[in-house]
Amino acid sequence: MAKTAVVRKRKKWTTEEKAFHAVVYLIYGLFTFICVYPFYYLMICTISDTQMVEMGKIILFPQGIHFKNYMEIFKVQNLGHSAMISVIRTLLGTTASLLATSYMAYFFTKENMWCRKFWYRLVVVTMYFSAGMIPIYLNNKMLGLINTFWIYIIPGMVSVYNMILVKTSIESMPAELEESALLDGAGYLTRFIRIVLPLQKPILATVALFAAVGHWNDFFTTKLYITDSQLYTLQFLLYELLNQVQAAAQQIQYETSAMAQATSSITPTGIRLTLTAVVTIPIMVVYPFVQKFYVKGIMIGAVKG
Amino acid sequence: MKKKVVDAKSRQRRWNDFKLFLYVLPVVALVILFSYVPLWGWSFAFFQYKPGRSLMNSQFVGLDNFEALFGNVVMRKNLIRVLKNTFGIHLLGYLFTPLPMMFAILLSEVKTPKFRKVVQSLTTLPNFISWVILFSLATSLFGSNGLINTVFKSLGHDSQVVTFLTSDDHVWLTQVILQQWKSLGWSSIIYFAAIAGLDQQLFEAAMVDGAGRWKRIWYITIPQLIPTYFVLLIMSIGNFLNTGVDQYLAFGNALNKKYIEVLDLYVYNLGVGSGQISFSVAVGIMKSLVAFVLFFLANTISKKIRGTSVF
Questions:
Q1: What residue spans of B129-170 are helical by DSSP H?
Q2: pTM to 2 decimal places
Q3: Domain span including residue B157
Q4: Which entry of A88, A267, B89, B120 is 20 to 30 Å from A17 by CA?
Q5: Residue B205's domain is classified under what CATH number?
Q6: What ipTM goes with this model?
Q7: What's the CA gap between B226 and B198, in Å, rounded?
Q8: Does a structural domain hold residue B55?
């Protein structure tokens, strides 16, 4: 209906124009479908009858709807605890990273800082130069961060890319805003907290999104540094589970896998799908709220990066 | 008298400049601690290090490890294979780099803002999903017990139709396509921003002159987006060797290892998997140095073309 209304309003549309739009709608509609369908499929599988899922009968609509999977999934060993670790890590890590990153960005906008260029370059180069995985591992080991929660938070606190985004954004702010506070005798920290941070909300929201997604999605840090199962994150649990399922599939011994024994009433496929959904849902819930910010954030600094 | 006042003032200013540095020092120290201090680990490449022993008790071998990387037949073969994979996946990926620009240009031509918005937000979503989740989704759809194979089986196909997850056919291509699926919507945002910033008068003038849609795109939009495209391309060269490991760890298995093992994953497998710390660090050092040279080149080219650079 809406489409025809638009077409009627613009009577000037030629057949060529109509054909063009039809083709473009088709292409983008198809690609959007390809982007969304896997998530949709995942969701309908988790609430559908598991046997029908395994027979390939669930394609477009859920059938035999039940929520047993979601109730059973938390019986999987360690899952509740891992969820807590993931949430705490994401909240704490994002806050710490946001503060450290914007703090650094603010001071690097001060052009009269002693040797500013040198320090700034020293920091920016780390985007392109890395000592390498093993030396960094050995260094973290020396610092006593292995098998501790802090490995999630401290090494990644300063994100150089995000710092550049925030810095560019602060630089585009009128200098008068800060100067007026300077006349009132406010120091750097007061100006940073009272004036700069409140005015930089769009870019800070963007950076917070990047940091939060990075924390939530990371499984490699756990794989590399953590052997204590009390510190596992959800992503790592999913990664382990996928490996197990793969190994199990190769031996065709589904029933004997440890995960299956822990929860008798859902199948390994059910566990895998539901765990994937549990890990995906938070992103899909938060995403629409931050979406309006990041386009702005990207516009400010992406080319600059 | 006067001179003293000036002195005091400049000293005051200098102290202020230094104070600014003191403010930033804690966070700069963090960067140094986690990005520069690890360089001491490079020394492992010059010893015959065995896990469990200390570096002091290990034998100093100079450049032997580096020589072995090229001299030892097995080592050399592995290194070449891994480099081939890294280059293959990257070069294939470069073929797709004009895609985000085209995606943005065509979508900007659509006259209904609502459609544009919906497409934009839904196609950006995959960018925020981890590779582990992506692997799980791919397993559900393309795995041996996944949707597609099951449906075809019920239609009477005996052999599996889609096998790319568990075979070594077209590993590079499928990995690149997965990357595209994940990042296309996201990468196009920057072009949307650039298109929104174009001077509308140019288009109006062209319309008055009777230029059609394709002419306008070809002669106005594309030439103005090309600089952005090249800058992004050049900067991506700086990251040529830094593929990360997430994707390849998630999708890698015994069956496709031969083609999916990229340099970063090789360093990981060598160091953590088989405990050959010294070799792993040696490979890592060479990677870091080459990557830095690439970045430097990219930066210089960017400076020449654009006038600005990261530095």
A1: 131-142, 147-154
A2: 0.88
A3: 80-306
A4: B120
A5: 1.10.3720.10
A6: 0.88
A7: 13
A8: no
